[in-house]
């Protein structure tokens, strides 16, 4: 009874500590793995001695194996084959040539600098080949890096995990059995990848069929069925060929995610929660089992080994694998810096330490210490600085330009014109093929299809665009389109014209902003544009009259004679959201209703076919506060 209670106490402590670290990391906006490692070490035998993972016995290996299966499956779910197609050559090279570069570079550094024997040096290098989605994905979500770079890092993190893990086990098997035949080693690697991939593909297809056709099951039960199948597939692959299960889980997730499964987001949310729990518990347990004395015993040579891995091997890797890509030097520099190691490396190192010790081979604890030193240095240095470096290199998604506009009408064409004149890419989407003539007249690309189709948004290039704007005549449709765009592509700015703020609770709703003004009568303003009953104006908010300018413009918005379209801030043009906080120096571009008769306008030289000219309008520029002050003074003197 006492032994079972000790195990229970260990697990409860690990879960509580892991979730606490996740909460604190979210509050401080730092990579969670940093706090998980520090808290695990603090609770372990080298800290306050509250956690003793060795009490779990072989149960620790079981926990590591099953949790790793969940983590890699969730990583596979995030693999978008259409996105990967954009960087397929570079990604293939990173997983193949990049693996070889890291293996050779890491082993040479460990041997010559860390003074490890060649066998142990190769084993270390095979373990740290992996980067890992458990570190990369949260980091990319936090810093909102350029989509092309994010796709490449995510794809590398997910695909290289099974390759690296299997490679490491092949190297370990070679060391334990004394078989140095390279043909045998390569055959073993390819065999494990093939078996794991085949089982994973079949299993992923089976999971998608269950989600599509088993309508008698609730979503909650479907999620659990998928979990049961996942662990079953993992065990089956491990039974047929040891260590092929890691490939199975990744392929199963990728196949499922790319099978157009309805309501797939429910499974993503469920697996995402399980992944957070798994990562939290594993890192706490593995870090608690780490001997700090063994890390310090490594000496300066091991520290230099990790530095060479970060500053020499990784840049060479990226340079070779992306030399013929369309990535610019900023993107390549960021890729060279960001390669933190994660839970797969920690798990494999812990298991290897146990295997080597049981076989009576020296170096198991040293390898584990060196791997954890690599994890700590890469996560702390790269994880904490990645955001600042991305901003410095100007490759955050907030820097993305261009716009996808749904709805081809006079108002949307006017907005598209401004983006186009600044040299930004604009793509319009509308189901009415008659809009082609209007778009072609302004040299705009138009896709005559429904924006509800994700493939259409993909064709429009939304993944690399800075703005999505839905402004058809149907407000409810606009909001649904914007939600879909936010969920599937997550562009930096998602706006829509809809009649009111929907009281929706899901995360996508918070990303959708109401465009221009509340309850915009888009049909009315399109009629104004068609009849020439508008003026196009611009005004810049200055410091002296900022409050009065803002009040004056807001009054015209409330009376329905003015709608702010765009705001230019720091030389960047953006669609104006309803909740925009205006600042001194903002340049606002707006439409002003001008109801003068058309005859009077023609006499003044304007015509309906003349493009609207951007000008400073006295109706807005001349703030009537001075006149009001004069009136109040004269009234007071007459009294």
UniProtKB/TrEMBL annotation:
GO CC annotation, single: plasma membrane
Coiled-coil region: none
Membrane topology reported for the UniProt record: Multi-pass membrane protein
Main subcellular location: membrane
GO molecular function, one term: antiporter activity
Residues in RCK N-terminal domain copies: 404-498
Transmembrane spans: 12-43, 55-77, 89-110, 116-136, 157-177, 189-211, 223-240, 246-262, 274-297, 303-321, 333-354, 366-387, 399-419
Pfam families according to UniProt: Na_H_Exchanger (PF00999), TrkA_N (PF02254)
Key words, A-Z: Antiport, Cell membrane, Ion transport, Membrane, Transmembrane, Transmembrane helix, Transport
GO aspect biological process, one term: proton transmembrane transport
Domain Cation/H+ exchanger transmembrane: 12-392
InterPro entries: Cation/H_exchanger_TM, Na+/solute_symporter_sf, NAD(P)-bd_dom_sf, RCK_N
Superkingdom as given in the UniProt entry: Bacteria
Subcellular location: Cell membrane
Protein name as annotated: Sodium/hydrogen exchanger
């Amino acid at each position: 009874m006492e032994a079972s209670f000790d195990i229970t106490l260990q697990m409860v402590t690990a879960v509580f500590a892991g979730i606490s670290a996740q909460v604190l990391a979210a509050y401080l906006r730092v990579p969670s793995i940093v706090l998980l490692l520090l808290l695990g070490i603090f609770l372990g035998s080298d800290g306050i001695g509250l956690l003793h993972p060795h009490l779990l016995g072989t149960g620790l290996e079981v926990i590591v194996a099953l949790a790793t299966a969940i983590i890699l499956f969730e990583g596979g779910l995030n693999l978008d084959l259409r996105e990967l197609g954009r960087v397929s050559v570079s990604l293939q090279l990173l997983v193949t040539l990049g693996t070889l570069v890291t293996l050779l570079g890491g082993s040479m550094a460990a041997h010559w600098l860390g003074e490890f024997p060649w066998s142990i040096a190769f084993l270390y290098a095979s373990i740290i080949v992996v980067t890992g989605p458990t570190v990369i994905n949260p980091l990319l979500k936090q810093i909102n890096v350029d989509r092309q770079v994010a796709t490449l890092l995510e794809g590398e993190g997910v695909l290289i995990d099974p390759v690296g893990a299997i490679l490491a086990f092949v190297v370990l098997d070679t060391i334990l059995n004394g078989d140095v035949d390279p043909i045998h080693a390569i055959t073993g690697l390819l065999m494990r990848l093939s078996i794991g991939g085949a089982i994973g593909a079949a299993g992923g297809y089976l999971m998608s069929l269950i989600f599509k056709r088993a309508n008698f099951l609730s979503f909650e039960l479907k999620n659990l069925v998928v979990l049961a199948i996942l662990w079953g597939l993992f065990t089956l692959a491990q039974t047929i060929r040891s260590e092929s299960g890691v490939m199975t889980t990744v392929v199963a997730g990728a196949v499922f995610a790319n099978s157009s499964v309805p309501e797939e987001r429910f499974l993503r949310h469920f697996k995402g929660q399980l992944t957070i729990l798994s990562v939290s518990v594993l890192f706490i347990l593995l870090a608690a089992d780490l001997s700090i004395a063994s890390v310090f015993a490594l000496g300066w040579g091991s520290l230099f080994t990790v530095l060479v891995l970060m500053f020499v091997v990784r840049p060479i890797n990226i340079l070779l694998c992306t030399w013929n890509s369309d990535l610019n030097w900023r993107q390549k520099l960021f890729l060279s810096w960001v390669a933190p190691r994660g839970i797969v490396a920690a798990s494999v190192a812990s298991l290897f330490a146990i295997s080597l010790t049981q076989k009576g081979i020296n170096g198991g604890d040293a390898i584990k210490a060196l791997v954890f030193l690599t994890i700590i240095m890469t996560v702390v240095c790269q994880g904490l600085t990645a955001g600042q470096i991305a901003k410095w290199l100007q490759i955050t998604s907030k820097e993305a330009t261009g716009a996808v506009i749904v709805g081809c009408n006079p108002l949307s064409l006017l907005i598209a014109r401004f983006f186009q004149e600044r040299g930004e890419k604009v793509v319009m989407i509308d189901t009415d093929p008659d809009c082609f003539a209007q778009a072609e007249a302004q040299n705009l690309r138009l896709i005559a299809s429904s924006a509800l189709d994700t493939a259409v948004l993909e064709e429009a290039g939304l993944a690399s665009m800075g703005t999505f704007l839905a402004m058809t005549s149907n407000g409810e449709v606009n909001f649904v389109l914007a939600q879909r765009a936010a969920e599937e592509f997550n562009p930096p700015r998602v706006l829509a014209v809809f009649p009111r703020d929907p009281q929706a609770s899901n995360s996508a709703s918070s990303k959708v902003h109401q465009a221009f003004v509340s309850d915009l009568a888009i049909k009315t303003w399109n009629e104004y544009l068609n009849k020439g009953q508008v003026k196009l104006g611009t005004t810049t908010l200055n410091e002296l009259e900022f409050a009065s300018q803002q009040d004056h413009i807001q009054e015209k918005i409330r009376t329905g004679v003015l709608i702010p379209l765009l705001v230019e801030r720091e030389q960047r043009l953006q669609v104006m959201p309803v909740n925009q906080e205006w600042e001194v120096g903002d340049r606002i571009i707006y439409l002003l209703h001008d109801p003068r008769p058309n005859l009077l306008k023609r006499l003044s030289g304007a015509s309906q076919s003349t493009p609207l000219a951007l000008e400073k309008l006295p109706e807005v520029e001349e703030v009537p506060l001075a006149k009001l002050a004069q009136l109040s003074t004269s009234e007071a003197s007459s009294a």
